[in-house]
Amino acid sequence: MNKPSLPDLVLWDMDGTLIDQTDSIIRCYHEVIQSFGFSKPSPLDIKRSLGGPLTHTLSLFLPEDSVDAARILFKETFPKYMFEGMIVLEGAMELIKRLNEQGIPQAIITNKQGGNARAVSKKCGFDQYIKVCVGNGDNPYEKPQVEFTESVIQALGGEYNHIILIGDSPTDVKTALNYKANCFAVTTGSHNKDELIEAGAEKAFNNLNELIELWAL
Question: CA 76, CA 201: separation in Å to the nearest integer?
């Protein structure tokens, strides 16, 4: 079998795709939600809600009139311990390096707060190879809005005809489809292959090493 053609641009999701920061994220949601007098949601319920905007997840567990204040509190709280227990996921750095060696531009597109995302990128060393990292709060948009993806493309410059977005959630799939790009999904978040393919992913993988094998990098 011939190896599939390489993309001319790779867009990366962050949480659940490049890193696992779940413990810190769940801890912060629990702390914020309890501060408003509500019981802690289950870690699984929180995990499966991730990938979309912060306000969406908060709205699942808090009344509408508390969401904005909770969003502000979350943004203030999370940086205090966001690196606790964080791990770089299997194959992430290796695939980033190999794509860079092929001269393929890469960018991070995430609903994590932009400042936090860039701090994570620097901590993990992704920023050695990925210079563009756009997150929530960097502009008025968020995934899966087309305008958010367009802001990342504009930051990169150039024209791209074969874009692959690598992500772990239905939000990532929708982000890609809204921009008429393809999504290669990984099950390193909280969704399985069937769920990701049903959402519209072109392909689904168990981990990023399988993508290295697919592209024979």
Answer: 34
